[in-house]
Amino acid sequence: MKKLLAPLLLVLFSQCKEKAAPPAPVYPIPHERQVAWQELEFYGFVHFNMNTFSDREWGFGDEKPEQFNPTALDARQWARIAKEAGMKGLIITAKHHDGFVLWPSAYTEHSVKNSPWRDGKGDLIQEFVDACREYGLKVGIYYSPWDRNHPDYGKPEYISYMRNQLTELLTNYGEIFEVWFDGANGGTGWYGGANEERKVDKLTYYDWENTHALVRELQPNAMLFSDAGPDVRWVGNEHGFAYETTWSNLMRDSVYAGMPEYSEKWASGQENGTHWVPAESDVSIRPGWYYHAYEDHKVKTLPQLMEIFYKSIGRNSSLLINFPVDTRGLIHENDEEAILKMAAKIKEDFQTNLAIEAAISSSADRGYGYEASRVIDGDYETYWTLSDGTGPKANLELDFGKEVSFNRLLLQEYTPLGQRVKAFTLEAEINGSWEKIASGTTVGYKRILRFPDVSTQKIRIAFEDGKDIPLISELGIYYAPKLLLPPLIEREKSGKLTLLSPDEGLEIRYSLDGSEPSELYTNPLEIQEASTLKVISIDPKTGENSDMLQKELEIAKAKWKTEDEKAIDENPSSYATLSSSKIQVNLGEAVTLTGFTYFPMQARYPSGHFTEFAFRISQDGKNWTEVASGEFANVVNSPIEQEIRFDAIPAKWIELEAIKTADGNPATLAEIGVLTR
């Protein structure tokens, strides 16, 4: 009986305690729909429309409905991949700038209803909606205000057309969680055959106040996206990165969709912003937003995707990753593999919150209901805070009871009462003294800091500055296993070789003679001769290592000279345009060649790819001997480095000529190289 009495008295005592009143909000604060949207954090874009079949990013508007004809379209595949990736919703390009629409709109013939797909009886928006709902995903709609096909664009009549189509989309397909308006609008277009440039006043032409009111009437819970919101704003770049300091507050009345200076002045938000307009970071999993076969080898790597995750969701932003669905109507296998690797790594990084097992205390609190323990209870609706008038400075201290290792800190503010924190630091007790480990500025809905591994028993989070007392809803301490991938290899024209670790705290081992990599890499290497490089990454804490990467390094290009140095700068992102369809290179010395390499232009809008070539050598730069000719058969769809071999021959000069380019434009190349082994 005595054993039961103490817990019973404790329960009765706690029930008698009265929870302190919550603090007053710090304005601006979010609307309920914004709170619900922020909790989604991660969702997907589907760019699939006429551009997929015209192989463009922005269609001109003169495309024909007959061009739209996917061979194996499966919206359920899109939804399945998004669900497996941890996404909470999908947004589809219902109408892009070219004006073609993915549903049988009653207001245009430029529609799937006049395409061969599904014999003209298809409704892709309905298929998309059904697939999303089957997999428990929210449904979003992208609608371009610009229409390069419509004859009335630029006139008042077009606004009625746009609102009629929005009414169809927002009444016929159930609940929509986000309506995405692109800021790109006005310019050249087909415009029903006019083939002219039409400029509009982006601030006034669309009468956004009444257009937004229409969306509000039809979909009261939908978030409205544009540069200016009004509900969620563009992050200001297409890299998927928010900012070290990211406010959800925005001087909204000073911003409009498509304003030229938006990215520089407004995209990161403002501490004194008048409205709550949180940021959305958008990025494509490939360089382009629409599918292009020539980008199949350019899908973002796992390190790149994780960098995007930490610099978007980890910086008070949502993350919108785009899938350029291919001409089959499927998410490409390379894209699926990449996004699922990302999902697995996120799960691994945040598998165990070490803070849950720690004893937690604070320098002060508001009283019952707002104690420090609220930040580790797993409930976003509860939070730790201070008494009114005590200011923004306070500490949270965690004692793990034993030494633990970690490298991630996660914080969340209770944003329904406003964004407050302006500066905080993470400290660890090392040998009896507190040492600074990491620091941050804004927190917002979620902030994640990454730092090298720390081992300690006690840590302290010090909130140093803010707009008012802090309201911290959740706190997480994690150990993210190292990203055990081979190092990245960078080489300069001089021969300088740099090996880049895929994660902090890893060792790099290498060899240059083809043996097992054993040399510890500490500083860049000078490699002048042809060598066989083998590299691995090693986690010194576990002893585990990555797969080995082998790369054949050729002679350095330090002595090489040519008319356009971009062709020999060892930078695949730059490129040379050849005025005479050929490039000549002085190698600076006699070299015995066994072949050459051609790296096609890698720009977002490639042109001038060599399809037929001739390769010649010379001893004096005047008299030339052709040693190879032929074609690069699939260079347009697969613009990777091309390698041509021939019998060994000495040369001081080389010449590569484009006999024919894929599009008839002047020949281009990112890099020319030689083979000597």
From TrEMBL:
GO terms for cellular component: lysosome. InterPro entries: FA58C (IPR000421), Galactose-bd-like_sf (IPR008979), GH (IPR017853), GH29D-like_dom (IPR059177), Glyco_hydro_29 (IPR000933), Glyco_hydro_29_N (IPR057739). Residues 343-480, 515-677 form the F5/8 type C domain. GO terms for molecular function: alpha-L-fucosidase activity. Its EC number is 3.2.1.51. Keywords: Glycosidase, Hydrolase, Signal. One of its GO terms (biological process) is glycoside catabolic process. It holds the Pfam family Alpha_L_fucos. The keyword Oxidoreductase does not apply. Belongs to the glycosyl hydrolase 29 family. This is alpha-L-fucosidase. It comes from Algoriphagus formosus.
